[in-house]
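Project channel, design review

CF: Before we commit to the [Haemophilus] felis constructs, I'd like one complete example in the thread so the newer folks can see what an input/output pair looks like. Taking GTPase HflX.
RD: sounds good, go ahead.
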Amino acid sequence: MFNTSDSNAVDFSYAINAEKSTAFSYVKNDLEIERAVIVHCFLNQVRNEEDLTEFKLLAESAQVDIVNILTTSRKTPHIKYFLGQGKAEELSSLVKEKNIQVILFNHSLSPAQTRNLESLCQCRVVDRTGLILDIFAQRARSHEGKLQVELAQLNHLASRLVRRKTGLDQQKGAVGLRGPGETQLETDKRLIKVRINQLKSRLAKVETQRQQNRQTRQKAEIPTISLVGYTNAGKSSLFNRLTQSNVYAADQLFATLDPTLRRLTIKDVGATVLADTVGFIRQLPHDLISAFKSTLQETCKADLLLHVIDCADPRQLENIDAVQQVLQEIGAEEIPNLLIFNKIDLLDNMRPHIEYDAQQRPVAVYLSAQNGEGIDLLLQAIQAHLKNEMVELKLTLAPAQGKLRHKLYELNAIKAEKIDDQGNFQLHIYLDQVQWLKLQKQENLHFR
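CF: and here is what came back for GTPase HflX:
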């Protein structure tokens, strides 16, 4: 899962491109499952076991063998080890006894705390942020996703570089230029800075392309619906159910990383674009939010957010708060949203239904994406949120206007049709007012 490291440094390796010495890549070794111990510190009087359970699922998602779980309680973190001195020494003994290869902390550690623990335990230490980054690195499939993950990794790594044990400085060979030169640490920092700039430049191009696609949809007045929610809430299963797709969906954290967009046609709304996005989690690393900015723009620019919630999760209220916090961070808190309580099949005596507010607008839908119960109610609720004022009228088209007639059929706007004695098409149409105004501009229409 993680790279081998000495006790005083976070190890990483660079593959220097022969043609461009400034290019490098972060190298991971996934050849074997590593033995790990999980460390969790309860920092208040209430022992929140759910946090520890969730972190255990994260560790399993990272494909490690969890040998032991070490817990302790403190009022405040220890400045040197995060844990107390005694617990840190107990952890060191456990590492030697169980032949542990990596220590996973369910907390964000400072670079100094990480180095101190590695020195004491002679073992690699990975905090919560590092673990989430590693999972993202395993799941990234698209070119954009890999760029985003690498950028987040390097931003996290930049503050954790330390001097190597080699002690070898770079030397300049010309007369009058000999001296200490650039240390290996300075070289590493410079290479990371160059690579970060390269990644930002590439992602800026991706964002430009995404922006052009969004502008095209906006000109065509095609609304965008974005699925958001806590990780493993069932967003991809719902996406597949709505669009008849086969996007990867699994009962694991961060099964979806790369965004997927599909066309969806909804009655009285017409063509829409449905976007499946990465799931959120408590204490989502800010480096990830920054790196995935272009992906999250699909959420920020959406016309409607479908906030998918696992209603069988005992922490559903906390999960909702965590998602709302991330939406606020990316500037999407003002976008209209519809709560989707998924997995009702896991609850007793729960039937699909819609909840309405005082104005009789849908605010929540209860359904099961797994077996399809309540999907029709969801489409009904989306229709109520997105539908525009509808136009119903009678339209007469000459035989030569077959192209316009075909377009009306594509819009599913023709409710009835007959041909008069002159061969004209007598149409009874019902369509969105926006679409109707657009057709009026494109064609010289005569109707009654």
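RD: helpful, thanks. The radius of gyration is 28 Å.
CF: The longest helix spans residues 184-219.
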